[in-house]
Design brief:
The protein has about 725 residues and is α/β, with parallel strands linked by helices. Helices cover about 45% and strands about 15% of the residues. The chain has 26 helices and 20 strands. Strands 6-7-8-3-9-10 form a six-stranded mixed β-sheet, sandwiched between helices. It has a six-stranded mixed β-sheet with strand order 16-17-18-13-19-20, with helices on both faces. Strands 2-1-4-5 form a four-stranded antiparallel β-sheet, with helices on one face. Strand 7, helix 7 and strand 8 (about 190-195) form a beta-alpha-beta unit. Helix 5 (about 115-125) packs across helix 6 (about 145-155).
Length: about 725
């Protein structure tokens, strides 16, 4: 099915990423690529889906044949018809914001008819019993659910080969079990699977062969039976994680007994919801932690773990309940002062241009702190990277850097969110050592699904289910660890996700909204203020019709205020405001109804109805897709600034405004660039470059509200032009 012999060196690099790598993948087999981070696994997958050298440039020698065809003679999209790809982080390669249209995206690019697309998408969700994920906003899904959607999108392409890059990096126990069932089903269907992976325990009965890579070479090829026969010590020498969770033993040092000087954090009857009239993410939670303890917060993706961590760290305010620190009530300001929240998304927490400056940030530049930083960097193999930009590090190196930030912090409470996501055996060992270093002086809460980490650092685990603390496990011996493992296997469910936001269906056809937006843009460029205000009135009415009530009231208030101020002060700056802001409002209001919620997908379908060139449609698709991402990332960036203690007061933000804006914008810009690169790669593998007629998965139709809006638009135009 796949036959290759490859040498590759990325452009600008001196060392080859692949060196004389050759192999054959038989039809219907599952090959697992394993080894430490940076060994060449992802590069080999990129060579198989033809992103190398077409997308990721460099010097490539050799060949890769699929089903007898040399992919060097094909485009990336044509190669995508032979092999579907699943990337490591679905957040950065989803092309739409709706789960069903994401599954259909590749089919649209391949010119499949709408009727066939709908059947295929329905079948994808049904075959794997994931109907609950249909027609959902992908940013309201847990990371595990998003990864499952990306696998369904690959399956829907109906290729015989699937290439998966670390599919479990962000998955919990429930999602890994579901993924295992999906992969078993694919194997039974005769699909050929190539999987790059650090976590190996779930691949029993799926993998046929394991290829162990190191420094760009395939060092060993072992059958499943041969690899499963290796001891944990032998696996560790190969930089591989355990193949059987049942072999784990508890290696935790018991915490120091509480004394009068030990800090204590307690929460009582805490509850929280993100929106009014929505289900609670947390309900009636009780917890107590003291210095020297490492407590695991476990539960399915979406069960409330990260939310609880952010409440403890003061990044979110509980709706009800009481939080005490050292016997005194602690508000969000006190909690932020005493706690540090290390996010799963490491890049949001870097503010400077080098590793060493990042570790110095927030500390006085004394010989003592410099010596401590040097000791940490050398102990954990990061000294040679001290002058590198944090964004140039690998994922594992970024994770180590965030943990070193926590080690150096003077804050007594540390919350770590998924610190081992996507880490190999060596990086996991470093992570354990850093947590043990912190444990001497701090209390640590770890939000995790990783039993290997739990068995080495956690004194106890608090299990959340559907927003409540369901059970607590004190880890004193192997029997208690086994009991925890059984509980995770039996009780962790995908249905635990609490973030089930209601969907508000649109009332108007996006073509009607596009016509209104066109009229709004014409009005914005007009000198006729009556025309501008007439169209503004229509856009406000449309906001009411589409139930964007807050926007509609804000727009109405601003327009009324501008009219009143201009009437009282008919010249000067108020006259300018009355002329400028309505033009901005009419355009913004029209855009909001076109792309907010789930409307971007329908708007793209409307573009196709208007016969807009496909290249322009793809450009609009990328722009629309970035709106919810940037909004979410801005929130995360703001929370990172708060937890690091930077610019904690308004006066500091004003006094050091340029530095504050730099910290807020630069990491976000670098993240957008990284996402744009991954997004482009994902789109290419799914046939965006193919030259064929495309059909939209989404159907659109007009109704009574469209007639109402069109009548209002015509009336506004006539009114504006005649008065």
């Amino acid at each position: 099915m796949i036959d290759f012999k490859l040498n590759f060196c990325y452009e600008g690099e001196n060392q080859s990423a692949l060196q004389d790598v050759k192999g054959t993948v038989p039809s219907g087999q599952c090959i697992v690529l394993c080894g430490d981070s940076g060994c060449g696994k992802t590069t080999l997958l990129r060579s198989m889906n033809h992103l190398i050298p077409t997308f990721y440039e460099g010097s490539l020698k050799g060949y890769c044949r699929m089903k007898g065809q040399d992919i060097n003679a094909l485009s990336i999209g044509e190669t995508g018809k032979l092999a579907a790809s699943v990337f490591q982080d679905p957040r950065s390669h989803f092309f739409t914001v709706n789960s069903s249209t994401e599954v259909a995206f590749g089919l649209e690019n391949h010119g499949v008819t709408q009727e066939k697309m709908k059947r295929r998408v329905e079948k994808a969700f049904a075959v794997f019993h994931l109907e609950k994920l249909k027609d959902r906003n992908v940013y309201e899904l847990s990371s595990g659910e998003r990864q499952l959607v990306s696998i369904l999108a690959a399956w829907a392409m109906d290729t015989e080969i699937l290439l998966l890059d670390e599919p479990t990096a962000n998955l919990d126990f429930a999602a890994i079990n579901q993924l295992r069932e999906v992969l078993l089903s694919l194997k039974q269907q005769g699909k050929t699977l190539v999987i790059s992976e650090h976590r190996l325990h779930y691949l029993t009965d799926i993998a046929d062969e394991y290829w162990v890579m190191a420094q760009g070479e395939i060092r060993e090829k072992r059958t499943a039976q041969e690899l499963l026969a290796l001891s944990d010590e032998q696996l560790s020498r190969l930089s591989l994680r355990t193949t059987n969770l049942a072999h784990l033993t508890l290696q935790v040092k018991q915490p120091i007994s509480p004394c009068s000087e030990t800090a204590v954090l307690s929460i009582r009857d805490v509850g929280f919801s993100y929106r009014r009239n929505e289900s609670e993410i947390l309900r009636h939670c009780f917890m107590r932690v003291h210095t020297g303890e490492v407590v695991g917060l476990i539960g399915s993706n979406g069960s409330g773990k990260t939310t609880l961590g952010k409440i403890v760290s003061g990044l979110l305010r509980a709706d009800y309940g009481e939080i005490n620190y050292n016997g005194k009530p602690a508000n969000t300001r006190v909690l932020r002062k005493n706690s540090l929240f290390i996010m799963q998304e490491a890049e949001f927490q870097f503010f400077t241009n080098s590793v060493i400056n990042e570790l110095k940030y927030g500390h006085k530049d004394t010989p003592e702190i410099c010596a401590e930083i040097e000791r940490l960097l050398k102990r954990f193999g990061m000294w040679e990277y001290r002058n590198r930009h944090p964004f140039s590090l690998s994922g594992g190196q970024m994770q180590k850097l965030t943990l070193m930030l926590a080690c150096l912090s003077s804050k007594p409470i540390i919350i770590l969110d998924e610190p081992t996501a996507g880490l190999d055996a060596k990086c996991l060992k470093s992570c354990v050592a850093l947590i043990q270093e912190m444990q001497k002086k701090k209390m640590i809460l770890i939000i995790t699904h990783d039993l290997e980490l739990i068995s080495q650092v956690c004194n106890r685990c608090i299990c959340l289910s559907k927003g409540s603390i369901e059970q607590e496990f004190f880890l004193r011996d192997n029997a208690s660890l086994n009991a925890l493992m059984r509980h995770m296997n039996e009780h962790f469910l995908l249905s635990d996700n609490q973030r089930m936001f209601s969907q508000i269906p649109a009332r108007c056809d996006p073509r009607t909204k596009l016509l209104l937006l066109f009229a709004a843009m014409v009005a914005a460029s007009s000198t006729n203020l009556t025309f501008v205000f007439s169209i503004a009135a229509v856009t406000i009415l449309l906001s009411f019709i589409e139930r964007f009530y807050r926007s509609a009231f804000v727009q109405s208030g601003i327009l009324i205020l501008l009219v009143v101020l201009n009437g009282v002060f008919p010249s000067g700056i108020f006259s300018f405001f009355a002329s400028f802001f309505p033009r901005f409002l009419v355009t913004w209001a029209g855009l909001e109804t076109l792309i907010a919620r789930n409307e971007a997908v329908k708007t793209l379908a409307a573009f196709r109805k208007f016969h807009i060139p496909e290249k322009l449609i793809m450009i609009f698709s990328v722009i629309f897709r970035f709106f919810p991402v940037i909004s979410n990332d801005m929130k995360l960036m703001s929370q990172s600034i708060q937890t690091r203690g930077a610019f904690s007061r308004i006066l500091e933000k004003i006094r050091f405004f340029p530095q504050y804006i730099e910290i807020l914008i630069v990491p976000l810009s670098l993240r957008v660039i990284r996402i744009a690169e991954t997004l482009s790669a994902s789109a290419e593998t799914r046939g965006i470059d193919l030259k064929c007629k495309r059909n939209s998965f989404v159907s659109i139709r007009s109704g009574i509200w469209d007639i109402v809006v069109l009548v209002m638009v015509v009336s506004a135009v006539i009114t504006g032009l005649t008065i």
